[in-house]
């Protein structure tokens, strides 16, 4: 509505009352709608009228790696009846916002969520339930107060979206379902944080395609409900991966039909895991399973002691399987094939770290059976490191046959081997403390894609063993970004495109050090800081205190 409204008859006024009420609901209920947003701390965009305002993280419009979908309606019409809107405050911050004058949008019970595409029904139902609205399904008509979800905008980043708040309605569109879902998360946060979604246009997309949280359920059994609560939290924050490390020396935590003898008493059933995966799918989160090998197999080997790796003196190596035996490969492949049918996402973590044979100064002498197998398979110059690399490649082949993209821990890639790790294996870089550690640039310069699990910033290890301390959200927010792969130093900017993103990791070395509730509270702000820097690695404009206050307001 503009200041120069034409007079209408009483009858016309009655007929238009519903539309007018919707347009001015922010003014009637809460003063000026945008004023309410401003009073709650919502943004401080001060560009000229119609100009794009960068996000609170400082990224300007049009600087992202993809192209956000165009808004589904024309640019908002300025009006002198309202102050110019201020940029929304969300976590992660939106990439860019074009302000406008208008009342913004507030949810009312009479309002509808409608979709233009049947594929968005799940997103529509979820948003309607969260905001107390009616889900009306596929509709072509337009009503006051509508929230419309639509696919469109052609190609580009499938996680990008635009959201237009105009004339008492909201239009969220994007080239892919994930992007539209993220638009609904922005709207939900706007409403929860300030009551009103500000008039204007949000254009948003992530800088990094992988934004993950890795959960160790092998050492500490977490309940299905706790995991599902984390999925909902991750979805609202626009994370898109949940890693599940469910096999280790301490326990094997998921029901198995191929090898029921290895399963620990306290475990998740396949039915429970299926529900977890389905919930994650509904939030556009990929569950990434990890069965670590050839190390960290203690729970599996407890039921198969004949496959334990033993040194020349017959002493077993902790958690290590004897990779010279064909039965070892069969056992692990049985499990990989079984769980590929349970975890339906396109990602898989092979582990590969901390194989005890290769922590010895002279593995050939200490483990002569491995040295003999390496020479038999790779010739006279074959080494134990070659044999371990071949093991990783063979396991990759097993999972690759199921159409998965593969990753392994960086200390599973050995220097100076005649056998090279498969070219499509992504490097999950977590540490530089292992024997013969290779710096991140060594992987990047070889052309490998890398995922950031930097244990200096992103490792929350229960009980704080060795040199670990609980990471703080503030330190991540102020000192880390995806190029900081090892320690505190960033790799050169030219490698940024090879760094796919990263994951905040929860390890449970001392499982009783914290309860489930304490863990949830402890990781709350680190998760928010991590996703902010994965969505936009730039220096945030909000101070840590303001970011923390925003997180508390958003809930």
How does this structure look, described?
With 555 residues, the chain is of the alpha/beta class. Helix content is 32%, strand content 17%. It is built from 16 helices and 19 strands. The protein has helices at 10-23, 25-30, 33-39, 121-131, 177-194, 224-236, 270-282, 298-302, 326-340, 363-366, 368-378, 384-400, 440-445, 473-479, 516-535, 544-554; strands at residues 53-54, 96-99, 112-115, 134-138, 147-151, 161-166, 169-174, 200-204, 210-216, 241-247, 286-293, 308-310, 316-321, 347-351, 405-409, 426-429, 450-452, 459-461, 499-507. An eight-stranded mixed beta sheet has the order 1-2-8-6-7-5-3-4, with helices on one face. Strands 9-10-11-14-15-16-17-19 form an eight-stranded parallel beta barrel, surrounded by four helices. Strand 18 (459-461), helix 14 (473-479) and strand 19 form a beta-alpha-beta unit. Helix 4 (121-131) runs parallel beside helix 5. The chain is elongated, with a radius of gyration of 26 Å.
Which terms summarize this structure?
555 residues, alpha/beta, disordered N terminus, hydrolase, 19 strands, glycosidase, Glycoside hydrolase family 20 protein, Hex-like_dom2, GH20_Enzymes, 32% helix, 16 helices, eight-stranded mixed beta sheet, eight-stranded parallel barrel, 17% strand
Write the layout of secondary structure elements.
Layout: H1 10-23, H2 25-30, H3 33-39, E1 53-54, E2 96-99, E3 112-115, H4 121-131, E4 134-138, E5 147-151, E6 161-166, E7 169-174, H5 177-194, E8 200-204, E9 210-216, H6 224-236, E10 241-247, H7 270-282, E11 286-293, H8 298-302, E12 308-310, E13 316-321, H9 326-340, E14 347-351, H10 363-366, H11 368-378, H12 384-400, E15 405-409, E16 426-429, H13 440-445, E17 450-452, E18 459-461, H14 473-479, E19 499-507, H15 516-535, H16 544-554
Parallel strand pairs: 3-4, 3-5, 5-7, 9-10, 9-19, 10-11, 11-14, 14-15, 15-16, 16-17, 17-19, 18-19
Antiparallel strand pairs: 1-2, 2-8, 6-7, 6-8, 12-13
């Amino acid at each position: 509505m503009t200041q120069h409204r034409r007079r209408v008859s009483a009858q016309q006024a009655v007929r238009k009352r519903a539309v007018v009420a919707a347009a001015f609901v922010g003014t009637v209920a809460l003063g000026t709608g945008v004023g309410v947003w401003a009073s709650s701390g919502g943004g401080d965009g001060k560009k000229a009228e119609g100009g794009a305002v960068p996000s609170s993280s400082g990224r300007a419009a049009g600087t992202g790696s993809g192209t956000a979908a165009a808004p589904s309606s024309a640019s908002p019409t300025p009006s002198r009846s309202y102050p110019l809107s201020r940029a929304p405050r969300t976590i992660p911050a939106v990439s860019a916002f074009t302000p406008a004058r208008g009342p913004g949008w507030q949810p009312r019970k009479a309002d509808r969520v409608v979709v233009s595409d049947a594929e968005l029904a799940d997103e529509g139902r979820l948003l309607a339930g969260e905001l107390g609205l009616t889900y009306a399904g596929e509709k072509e008509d337009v009503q006051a107060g509508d929230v419309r979800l639509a696919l469109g905008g052609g190609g580009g980043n499938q996680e990008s979206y635009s959201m237009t708040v105009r004339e008492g309605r909201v239009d969220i569109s994007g080239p892919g379902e994930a992007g539209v879902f993220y638009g609904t998360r922005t709207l939900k946060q706007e409403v929860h944080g300030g009551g009103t979604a500000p008039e204007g246009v949000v254009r948003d997309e992530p800088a990094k395609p992988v934004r993950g949280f890795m959960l160790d359920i092998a050492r500490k059994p977490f309940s299905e409900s706790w995991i599902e609560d984390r999925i909902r939290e991750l979805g609202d924050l626009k994370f898109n991966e949940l890693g599940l490390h469910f096999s280790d020396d301490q326990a094997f935590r998921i029901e198995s039909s191929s090898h029921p003898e290895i399963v620990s008493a306290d475990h998740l059933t396949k039915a429970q895991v299926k529900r977890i995966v389905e919930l994650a799918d509904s939030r556009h989160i990929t569950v990434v399973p990890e069965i670590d090998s050839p190390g960290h197999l203690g729970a599996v080997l407890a039921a198969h002691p004949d496959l334990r790796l033993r040194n020349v003196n017959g002493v077993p190596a902790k958690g290590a399987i004897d990779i010279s035996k064909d039965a070892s490969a069969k056992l692990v492949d049985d499990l990989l094939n079984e769980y590929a049918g349970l975890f339906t996402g396109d990602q898989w973590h092979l582990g590969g770290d901390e194989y005890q044979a290769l922590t010895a100064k002279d593995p050939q002498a200490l483990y002569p059976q491995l040295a003999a197998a390496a020479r038999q398979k790779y010739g006279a110059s074959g080494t134990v490191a070659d044999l371990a690399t071949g093991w990783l490649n063979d396991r990759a082949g097993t999972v690759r046959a199921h159409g998965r993209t593969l990753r392994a821990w960086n200390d599973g890639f050995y220097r100076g081997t005649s056998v090279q790790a498969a070219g499509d294996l992504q490097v999950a870089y977590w540490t530089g403390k292992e024997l013969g550690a290779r710096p991140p640039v060594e992987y990047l310069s070889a052309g490998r894609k890398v995922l950031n699990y930097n244990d200096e910033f992103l490792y929350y290890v229960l009980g704080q063993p060795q040199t670990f301390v609980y990471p703080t959200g503030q330190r991540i927010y102020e000192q880390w970004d995806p190029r900081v792969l090892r320690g505190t130093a960033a790799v050169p900017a030219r490698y940024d495109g090879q760094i796919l993103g990263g994951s905040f990791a929860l390890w449970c070395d001392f499982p009783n050090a914290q309860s489930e509730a304490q863990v949830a509270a402890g990781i709350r702000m680190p998760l928010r800081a991590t996703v902010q820097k994965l969505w936009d690695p730039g220096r945030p404009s909000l101070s840590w205190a303001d970011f923390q206050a925003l997180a508390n307001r958003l809930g």
